[in-house]
Amino acid sequence: MQNVVLDKVVVNMGVGADQDELKKAQQIIQLITGKKPCPTSTEAKIPDWGLRPGIQIGLKATLRGEEAIKFLKKAFAAKNNKMAEKSFDRTGNFGFGVREYIDLPEAKYDPKLGIKGFDVLVSLKKRGYRVKLRKINKTRVGHKQRVTKEDAAEFVKSLGVIIE
Q1: Where are the alpha helices (DSSP H) in the chain?
Q2: What is the CATH number of the domain that holds 104?
Q3: Checking phi first, is residue 53 left (phi over 0); if not, alpha (psi -120 to 50) or beta?
Q4: To pair with 85 at 20 to 30 A between CA atoms, which of 52, 92, 103, 151?
Q5: Predicted model pTM
Q6: What is the DSSP letter of 49?
Q7: Distance of alpha carbon 57 from alpha carbon 22, whole angstroms
Q8: Residue 92: HSE in the Cβ half-sphere, 13 Å Cα cutoff
Q9: Consecutive sets of 10 residues in the chain, 164 residues long: mean pLDDT of each?
C-alpha cells in the first residue's frame, strides 16, 4: 500500500486562439501520444490578448497505465534524463516542458507542422487514495497514504532520471 504508482500523465500544449495553430498542435499531440487530444478553453477575459471566456487556446491528452510510462520514458529521454528539483510540488506531482517535439525519440520533423513544444504534467498516487475521491462513503486519507516530494523524487530516480 505504500508503493508510489503513476496515476496519469497529461500532455498539454497552449497555442493561442489561432485555429490553424490549433490544428497543427492537434496533429502533433496525436503524433506523439497516439491519442486524440481534448481542447482547453479560456475561463477569464484578457482583452489585451484578445481572449474571452470559451475561446479554445490549447489542447491536452491524458495517458494512463503502461502507455503513460512508455511516454514518460520518451519525454525524459528528450530532456537527457535530467530534471530540476524545483519541478516537484509538495504533494508529489511534477511537471516539465519539452522545447521541441522532435526531441522525442522516433519523432520526425514535418515542415507543415513547424517546431512546437509541450508540457508534461505527472500525477502520482499511493494505493488506497481512491477513498478520498469516490462518490459513496468518502473518507479522509491519512498522512502515510499521501505522496510527498521525496516519494516522487524516488519514483523518478527509479526510471533512471537524475534530479539536479
Answers
A1: 19-33, 65-78, 130-133, 149-158
A2: 3.30.1440.10
A3: beta
A4: 103
A5: 0.87
A6: G
A7: 7
A8: 22
A9: 88 89 91 92 84 88 94 91 91 91 86 90 87 85 86 91 89
pLDDT at 131: 79
Number of H helices, E strands in the chain: 4, 7
Q: How far is the C-alpha of 103 from the C-alpha of 79, rounded, in Å?
A: 8
Return the bridge partners of 108, or none. Answer: none
Distance from C-alpha of 123 to C-alpha of 48, rounded to nearest angstrom: 33
Give 81-113 pLDDT, tens digit per residue: 999 989 999 988 999 999 988 888 888 888 888
**Contact in structure between 96 and 121 (CB atoms under 8 Å):** no
Residue 114 grid coordinates? 513547424
CB 32 within 8 Å of CB 107: yes
Q: How far apart are CA 105 and CA 129, in angstroms?
A: 34
Query: Which domain, by its residues, includes 159?
Result: 4-163
Q: Is 133 exposed, middle or buried (0-12, 13-18, 19+ CB in 10 A)?
A: exposed
Number of domains comprising the chain: 1
pLDDT value at residue 27: 92
* Sheet strand arrangement including 4-14: 38-41, 56-63, 4-14, 118-126, 94-98
Confidence at residue 118, expressed as pLDDT on a 0 to 100 scale? 92
